[in-house]
Amino acid sequence: MVTITIYSKKNCHLCDIAKEALIKIREEYPFSLIEVDIEKDKAIFEKYKYLIPVIEIDGEKTFTYKVNETELKNILIFKSQPQ
Fold this sequence. Notes:
Layout: E1 3-8, H1 13-28, E2 32-37, H2 42-48, E3 54-57, E4 60-64, H3 69-80
Parallel strand pairs: 1-2
Antiparallel strand pairs: 1-3, 3-4
């Protein structure tokens, strides 16, 4: 199963929009979702503080600031095919 990680923080409007998009897409294209609050880790905060939300798919940074829903769906379709 594909794992998507979203790096975000509280009171971040763009983060909330990205999370909503991920949750909506997950209804049709299942994946594991991990949420990381950047404020809980100083190193992660320093790395992503100006880029959030950051979305990684299977450990690879794929989106910053917003989720391209069409592109994400295409990635999930591709990753769900037998290799």
